[in-house]
Amino acid sequence: MIIDCHGHYTTAPAALQKFREAQIAGFKAGSDLSMSAEFKIGDDEIRNSLENAQLKLQRARGTDLTIFSPRASAMAHHIGSETTSLRWSQACNDLIHRVVELYPDNFVGVCQLPQSPGAAPAHSAAELERCVRELGFIGCNLNPDPSGGHWTSPPLTDRHWYPLYEKMVELDVPAMVHVSSSCNPNFHATGAHYINADTTAFMQFLTGDLFVDFPTLRFIIPHGGGAVPYHWGRYRGLAQDLKRPPLADLLLKNVFFDTCVYHLPGIELLLKVIPADNILFGSEMVGAVRSIDPETGQYFDDTKRYLDALPLNEADRHKIFEANARRVFPRLDARLAKRQAQFAERNAQPARQGVNHES
Amino acid sequence: MIIDCHGHYTTAPAALQKFREAQIAGFKAGSDLSMSAEFKIGDDEIRNSLENAQLKLQRARGTDLTIFSPRASAMAHHIGSETTSLRWSQACNDLIHRVVELYPDNFVGVCQLPQSPGAAPAHSAAELERCVRELGFIGCNLNPDPSGGHWTSPPLTDRHWYPLYEKMVELDVPAMVHVSSSCNPNFHATGAHYINADTTAFMQFLTGDLFVDFPTLRFIIPHGGGAVPYHWGRYRGLAQDLKRPPLADLLLKNVFFDTCVYHLPGIELLLKVIPADNILFGSEMVGAVRSIDPETGQYFDDTKRYLDALPLNEADRHKIFEANARRVFPRLDARLAKRQAQFAERNAQPARQGVNHES
């Protein structure tokens, strides 16, 4: 089974964006809209939005299941108030839930959190709990910079974030560290802000003692870990110079990297320096880069192709494509195990009946 | 000849730091100190500070000449006023000049600019001109974020920076894009802020038209280009999706990367994806990581060792270790050519005399 740990609903029906625009206009005028019948999205619209995009690409690339979350760049936690962010998150998460209901074999949900600059992370715990317990989601995307490029929150290792981590541990769900769009003109969102946030989060984890306090807390650092694998020697050396434990002990039980790196040499480096136990297949599709690489004639974000081109033994291949995702997302593992048991039972019943007929 | 394009005077005599502390205390008390006799540094102190550090490592590693600038993390442009920054830059640059005077075969100077948050980059032009014309420096370090981690300046492609670029073009000197320490607790200086700034600057160059306006302007992005080579596919794809020209046309005549990447797989990737014409040997020594890699038994920052371990043809090797530095720093080339001519002349005279003796 091939699980893609990093997909966003970048192709959502236009009514979602219309609601967002109305919400932002409402906020400016002093009100906070909730999603309503005015912005109704039909099941067929959802199907259409996926059939020619994520589902088509799943089939073409031979992947099975995408861990699916709202469009990351649209989270835009810096817009409006905490209420704005909550209602927007609810609308986006509810839509992901509908996707999963329509295509339970193809998608499983990860939620957007209703973060807001200055708001306590504890306030995100309720929406996380709703999504996990009521909608069957298996994780969340955590924005380390709800200000959108001004980096005004404390580092992820600060106690500021602990109430949310307590809820994550209670629910046994991981977070992907994922910023949103940037309102700082220095940072292009997908070309700088995303990658910088990945690198920044890793260095915060390296210098802090977060995993002493939360030994089972788990984070995925997307986009191949930002700059980290390329500078793995620098990080090993910094840990040593700072008298920190070796990285394997310090954070590799808690921190994982996806494979959203869009060329073969990058994936090759990732596999060379990061243990296979810490790599989860991901493609970010349909996402940051949507076109075909003229050097290969293939989509830049067809990251499975790079993995397939490299000499991976079966055990590591199984970890990267399936087992690590099931380990990092235990609720996914439980769901898949249940489905596999149901499937086995369904297959077993006619066989027993057959035996009865013949006896 | 082996030219290291990235060295900082991280081992400067203690009196420099004492001056800095007095200067910061003075600023808080309402005055702006200049370097004075009170903080006198003797030639022997300079020699001692280098003999057991940079010079010893040059000899041990077989490198010849280091392009040498003040300690980057100590530039701290966010501290004090524009005058504070000017006087601190002058003190640091004057000390680099003394290093070069004492060891003209081992070091050549690159200056710190007297940047300050909100100050016009034009104000840095005078110190750049002084360093180049009076002290014989060959380039500068340009901080894209004088706020120290709050990123309050416009992007490097903004006209805000143009007066400084005009001076750089007039003097025919490049800049290394190099931030300083971070006063934002999110960003560890050498583990996050440095690397993020490198990635950020590259993406700014990718999205802007700076090199249309300044076709001869040249930047070195240090630390192996931040995350850029690891994500080279992402950047090629983003350029394509954004309808920008191919990277080779857009910026590879103007943007160069050093080799400050502290493990073999990182350097291997860099050589695979970045043209040899755009790579300058650098080690950042004595710098961000000072210890020995237990996996190799060698210093993490002995980057020449990684290059030596990889299959480089002679032409590319010559580019990376010498020719590119001479091309990117034309004033270095002129200086070396002059020295080589003098050397040749000195060697030729006794030979002619010898011939005369025999005739």
Commentary on this structure:
The structure is a homodimer. Chain A is about 50% helix and about 10% strand. With about 350 residues, the first copy, chain A, is of the alpha/beta class. The longest helix of chain A has 29 residues, at about 330-359. The radius of gyration of chain A is 21 Å and the shape is globular. The two termini of chain A are about 35 Å apart. The model of chain A is unreliable at about 355-359 (pLDDT under 50).
Structural key phrases:
homodimer, 359 residues, alpha/beta, six-stranded parallel β-sheet, 14 helices, 11 strands, 10% strand, disordered C terminus
Helix residue percentage of chain A: 40-55%
Uncertain runs of chain A with pLDDT below 50, 5 residues or more?
A: 354-359
Structural class of the secondary elements of chain A?
alpha/beta
Instruction: Please state the oligomeric state of the protein chains shown.
Output: homodimer
Shape of chain A: globular
Discrete helix count of chain A: 14
How many β-strand stretches of chain A? Answer: 11
SSE topology sketch:
Two copies of one chain form a homodimer.
Chain A: E1 3-9, H1 14-28, H2 43-51, H3 54-61, E2 65-70, H4 82-102, E3 107-109, E4 111-112, H5 125-134, E5 140-142, H6 162-171, E6 175-177, H7 189-207, H8 210-213, E7 219-221, H9 232-241, H10 247-250, E8 255-258, H11 264-273, E9 279-280, E10 292-293, E11 298-299, H12 303-309, H13 314-328, H14 330-358
Parallel strand pairs in A: 1-2, 2-3, 4-5, 5-6, 6-7, 7-8, 8-9
Antiparallel strand pairs in A: 10-11
